[in-house]
Structures are given as C-alpha cells and as structure tokens.
Specification:
Chains A, B: Keywords: Heme, Iron, Metal-binding, Oxidoreductase, Periplasm, Peroxidase, Signal. The structure is a homodimer of 341-residue chains. Chain A contains 15 helices and 4 strands. Chain A folds into 2 domains: 141 residues, Orthogonal Bundle (Cytochrome Bc1 Complex, Chain D, domain 2), CATH 1.10.760; 139 residues, Cytochrome c-like domain (Cytochrome Bc1 Complex, Chain D, domain 2, Orthogonal Bundle), CATH 1.10.760.10. In chain A, the strands form 2 sheets. Chain A has a two-stranded antiparallel ribbon with strand order 1-2. Chain A has a two-stranded antiparallel sheet with strand order 3-4. In chain A, helix 4 packs antiparallel against helix 9, helix 4 crosses helix 10 and helix 12 crosses helix 15. The first copy, chain A, is 40% helix and 3% strand. The N and C termini of chain A lie far apart (81 Å). By secondary structure, chain A is mainly α. The interface between A and B is large, with 40 and 40 residues.
Chain lengths: 341, 341
Amino acid sequence: MKLVVSLAVCLISAGSVFASSSLIQKAKNSRLEAIPATQEALMKLIDDKNDPITKEKVELGKKLYFDPRMSKSGLISCNTCHNLGLGGADGIPAAIGHGWTANPHHLNSPTVYNSVFFKAQFWDGRSPHLADQAQGPVQAGPEMAAPPKLVEDRINSIAEYVQEFKGAYGDDVKIDFEKITATIATFEKTLVTPSKFDDFLNGDENALNKEEKEGLVTFIDKGCTSCHSGIALGGTMQPFQIAAKYKFTNVGDFKGDENGMVKTPTLRNITETAPYFHNGQIWSLSEAVKEMGSTQLGIKIDDNDAAKIVTFLKALKGDKPEIIYPQLPESSINTPKPSAN
Amino acid sequence: MKLVVSLAVCLISAGSVFASSSLIQKAKNSRLEAIPATQEALMKLIDDKNDPITKEKVELGKKLYFDPRMSKSGLISCNTCHNLGLGGADGIPAAIGHGWTANPHHLNSPTVYNSVFFKAQFWDGRSPHLADQAQGPVQAGPEMAAPPKLVEDRINSIAEYVQEFKGAYGDDVKIDFEKITATIATFEKTLVTPSKFDDFLNGDENALNKEEKEGLVTFIDKGCTSCHSGIALGGTMQPFQIAAKYKFTNVGDFKGDENGMVKTPTLRNITETAPYFHNGQIWSLSEAVKEMGSTQLGIKIDDNDAAKIVTFLKALKGDKPEIIYPQLPESSINTPKPSAN
C-alpha cells in the first residue's frame, strides 16, 4: 500500500504538481488575472465612457506616438524610449533624451505594452492613468523637452492633423496639450499583448506545457505574486526594499514615492525588456529573479528554481498588435521649427 | 485672320501649352523618366542578379533598418534620420547622431525613398550604390558610431537574426558587416514611391490636372531638368554653385567632391522633406525654387512661376509602400551592451 501511494506521488510529480484545473484556481487565488479572451470583455475593462476608444482616435494617437515633432528637437518620439518593436521599451539602462541627457535619477524606461492595466504610472506612481502620464515625458527637459504651447502650435499648424482631430472629436475640438496627449493615451490603451498564459487562465489547460506549469507553481510558491499580480503581473505600488539593502542604490538616487513605495514593473514580455529594475542594472533575467528573492522576499531562490520561474516568465511573451507604420502629415511653413538646443 | 490666331493662342494658353501627349514627349525629351508601371519592369531595373531581392532579405533588412542596436548607443536606427513616416528624412537642418552630435559639415539627411534610382550616394557622391552607402552612417562617429565588429557581434549574438540570415542566404552565410549592411540596402531598394506624375509619363494623360501640367512645362522651360532628371528627378552629380555664390556657404564647410560636384537631391516627395539644400537652410519650397533659379540657372524665377513649379512638385508625392512595424528579435545575454559614450 505504501509503495502504491509513493508511486502515485511520483507520477504526479513527474506530470505536474497540480492538475491543471486546480493550478488555474491556485493562480487565480494568488490574484493572477488573464487578459480577457474576448474583445468585448477587454473593451469593458479598458474603455472610458467619457472618452471612448474609437478607430479615429487610435489611428491619430498612433501617428502622434510615432511623431518626433512631439519633441523640441524634432528627433524624439514616444516610440524612441517605448519602442513597439523592442517590447515597448528601449533596451538601455537609463533613458536618454533631449541633448543626449540621461534620466537624472538613472531611471529605466518601462514598457508601454499592457500599461493600461497598471494601477499607477511612473516608477513613483505619481500618475493615475496613461492620459496623465503622457504629459510628463513630452515636457520633461531630459526627455522630449517640448513645452505644451510648442506642441499645440506644431500640431495646429499641420492641416492634416487638425482635420484628423476634427474627425476624431468633432469640428469644435480644441486641440490643446491635454487633448493631444489624451489621444496618444487612447492609442496606448490598445497595446495589449495576450499570451499563452492568458489562454491557460482562461481555461485552456494545455496552453502551458509541463515545465511552464512547474514554473508557475514555483513563481506562486516562492511568493512572487505578492507584488506581481493582477492582469499586468505588476503595475501596483509596493514597498521596494531599495533604500535599505538594494545593491544598486549607488546608481541613481531614486527613492520611490513619499512612503518609499515603487511601482512594480509588469512581467509581461519581460524577456524583451532587459535590462531590469528601476535603474536597469541587471541584464540577466535569472539573476533578476534571484535578486528579488533575496532582496524583496528574504529567501534564497537557487539556480534551479530561478530557471523554472524564467521558463514561466517566457510564457508571458504576448502577441503584439500589428502596427502599420504611419505616414505622418506634412509640416507647413508655419510649423514651429525643431531646435536641438 | 490675325484675331483668329490670337484667339487660338489664347485658348491654348488657357488650356495647356501642349496637348498632353506632346507634353509627355517633351518631358521625356528633357530626360524625365517614370518609375516603371509594372512590378516586372521595376524589378528589371533595380534587381541585382548577384544578390537578388527576395522576400526573406527584404523582411530581414527591414528589421535591421528599424533596429537601434545597429548603433553603439542602442538608440539610433537607420529610421531615426531616414524616417519612413516623414518622407524618408528627419525634418531637421543638419543630421544629429550619437552623443547629440550635429553633422560636422552641417549636412542635411537625404531621403531614402527612391534612392535606389540615384547614380551616386551621399552629397559628395562617394558611394556608387546603397550597399556601399549603408556602411557609412553605421560607423560614422557623429551618426551611429558602431564599429563593424560591434555590429557583427550584436547581430550574431541574437539567435533569431542568425536564423533569418540563414533563411535569406543559406546555412553557410557569413554574417559580417558587409552582409548586414547589404541586407539593409536590399530593403531600401524596395522603397519606391510611384506618383501621379509616373502615371502621366506612363501614358495616362489625365493623371495630371491643368495646373500640374502648366507647372511641368514651367519646370522644363526654366531649365530645372538640366539637373533634376532621370527617374529620381535628381541623384546625379552636378556642378553646384555653392562655393562661388551660394548664400548659405557660411553654414557648414561642405564643398562637394574633388571637382566641386554635388549630388542633386531627388524632387520626389519634396513637400515632405523640408528643410532644403545640403545644409537644410531653406524651409520654404517656393523660396528654394527661386534660389535655384538665381544660383544655378542664372535666371529670376518670379513668384508666379515658382508657384507653378511648386504645383508640379506636389504631384511628385508618391504612394509609400506599406510597412508593418517589425517586431525585433530579443537580445541574448551575450549581446554586446549599448554604450551612450
């Protein structure tokens, strides 16, 4: 009898620790959530009845997102630091912007993909949503360095843009800085990347293979979901142990919000967005996993468990929306000129 | 009888100076050429039997064209200065590259669209073709600042790129700097933008309206085709009167090739690629037309004629190939790191 039980345990271990259906339940109990499987359910989640997502706004927002004339120099677009071909980020440790200036706090550019699911924007969470967030980098001296009036004058001087704003919002639209950046945010809301992990959570028990399921179990059991939860597996403010013991404290002086809280990065598409952490000082994903174990969770995650977790994280790589590179409307003779200084 | 003749002349003037069919002939006699109307004829013109254009090479070349990891900093791609959404150029007077360095000769970034039709590349014509040209900016310190070995090490460290090179060239491909830049050039060859002017030259007499035809006549009669001819309406080396009398000589120290010859810019999509001239010092297209009249042709082109010519130039705006923004392959842990310095 004893032998039979051991054998049964062995077989279960060789398969997966949980039957898939109970693993789905375990993941949900750990506050992991799927991107909704249907467009209707997704829209219910991300749409704003006061500023509904429409095809016209998304197309216009896409143009503005890719348009370097949103910056003082005429060289830097949203896509420069949040590159939709590079996992929605820039692949460098600290953002570099206008005048080749590095971010003064040595902060790493977070991905724009799935940022609609974040509860707060920016590393210190100071923005409640994307429309508010989009106003920041455009104006910031070390980023795009464009005062609101310059952006408004540029866009209003370009006839085709004016027409498209009217098409999106009606003929009496006031094309001001808030409207322009809100339109970019509407485009950004559509940058959602469903993965096989979502298929799994949505009920397809075979969407993850055995190793990925083991990785998911390890991810949960080690406590990673205490911060990396929700649809984004991140995007909420958490007490990041940076000031006390984080070994990269000497790179940059970033401290989080007034309570020392820091926005947890999303883990979706994480294999595409090295280097990691707020100051981009770690390039290896397994090293990052082990570092979070010791720094945040106070446990040692060994190489074996780190590899399992990385296997799960790879399953978070999602399908990117197809983006047709936009043809941007021509400047006019009245368009304020770019300035590199 | 005299009255009748005058009336007839009047009517002809009010319509167009030439019957369309003879205007097509006049344009061809002035060495203006159409982009071929069929894909077959176009391929015959641009394809290279030693390195044939294939779907695999074009797709791979597109990724490399958009990949900022082609630069030392990881921030600058070919598309930064030759932006396919901005007429294939950057919209600023002098190119700015690595370290926010302006082009040392204050040279303006020329468009990549239709550059396959140029007889020489670079303002001083020092490159005979695109594959040779593409090697320059990648390495140039004030542009992408990436030594060939860095580029080779980066691309060879990215498994998906290696696979795609094998798919494009065969399993024994050597992925060296020449192969990488030649692949970019193969993509660039496809950046051809047929316009209604081509439809006209190819026999559709109604493709240009009356004003555009008048503009074409003025363009030819004023002598613009003495330099702006061929398919590109430019792209050949011509004696540019810069040193002697060009009023912008004090901006930059560019002198052309050893004979003082300068590559004539293409006029295709010219409304999208302000500012104009080698040093980007003129923003108004009609001003540029008048300047060329006095500087190059030794004639005064008045406002009226300049406006006519500009009307014709607008008809050179072509249809851009649809570009699906590429998802770039992930770096590996062995990929040489970006460096902003």
